Amino acid sequence: MTRILFITATRIGDAILSSGLLDHVLGSYPDPRVTIACGPLAAPLFRAVPGLERVIVMTKQKGGGHWFDLWRNTVTHRWDMVIDLRESATSWFLLAGRRHVKRNWPGDGTPVHRVEEAAAFLGITPPPSPVLWLDDLARARARALMPDAPVLALAPAAAARFKEWAPERFAALALALTGTGGALAGAHVAIFGGPGDEATARAVTARLDRGRTHDFTGQLDLLETGACLSRAALFVGNDSGLMHMAAAAGAPTLGLFGPTDERVYGPWGRRTASVRAGEQVDERTRDKVKSSRTSLLADLELAPVLAAADNLIKAETTP
C-alpha cells in the first residue's frame, strides 16, 4: 500500500486541471491510498477517486489557520508521498518518504498552460489530461435528466462578471446551432450553472424554445453536472470551472475568453477550442481588471463563436 497526500486547489477549475497529475500518480502504484486536501468548492469532485481514503476540506481562516488544521489532520501519519500544489510550508512539517512541493514557475515569462505546468512539476511527459471521476449515482442522474437526443450544453455564467459573454448572445448561438440548417439542428439545449447563477440562466432560456430547453442551474452537484456534460454533443461556456469539467468529461468544448489568457487556462484536450475577445493578453495583467463589474467580452461577436462551434461539431462527424 502506498499512502499519498495530495494538496490541491480551492477553485473548481484549478482542481480539475491538476486531476490528470493525480490520476497519473495513482496509476503508478499497485495499491495507492490517497488523502486529498482542497477547498470546499472543489471537494465534491473527488468522492469517486480510486483508492480514496479521505477528503480534507480546507476552509480559509484568518491568519492561515486552515493550514494549521491541515497539519493537525495529517501529522500523525507517515506518507509515502506528499504532493503539494499550493506551495505551502505545511508539507515540510510532515513525515514523508518523498515530498514534492510546487514552486513558482521558473520560466522566461512565456505563458504555460496549467496542465503543462503541473506535469513539469513531477517531470511527466507528455502532460496527463485532466480527468473526471464519476460514480454510478452521478451517471444514473444524468441518464434520468438528459434527453435521449443531441444536447447543446451552455454555461453562461462565470465566477466573475468580467468573464461573462452576454446572455442574449448565448441564446442567439443556441438558436443558430439548433435551428433549421444549424450544425445541431433539432438538438435540445441544457443550461448549467451553480447556485447564484439562476438569473443569468433565465436571461438565456427566456429567448429559447421551452419545449427543447432544460435549465439545470443550481440543481445538480458537481459529479451529476459532469455526468450530464459527458453526454453533450457540444459545450460552450465562459472561462469557468464548468468549462474545464466539460473538457475533462470528454465533451467537445468551446471556451470563451477575454481578458483571461486561454494559453494558460484554455480547455485542455483534442476535442477543445477557444475564442477570445479582443487582442491577446498576458495572464499577469488580470489583476488590473478583476474588479470590473461589467463584462469584458462585449466585443466578442456571434460570428466567430458560431464558426468555432461549427468546426468542433464537424470534427466530431468527419471520419
UniProtKB/TrEMBL annotation:
Alphabetized InterPro entries for the sequence: Glyco_trans_9, LPS_LOS_Heptosyltrfase
Keyword field: Glycosyltransferase, Transferase
GO molecular function: transferase activity
Pfam families according to UniProt: Glyco_transf_9
Protein known as: Glycosyl transferase
Naturally occurring in which organism (per UniProt): Glycocaulis albus
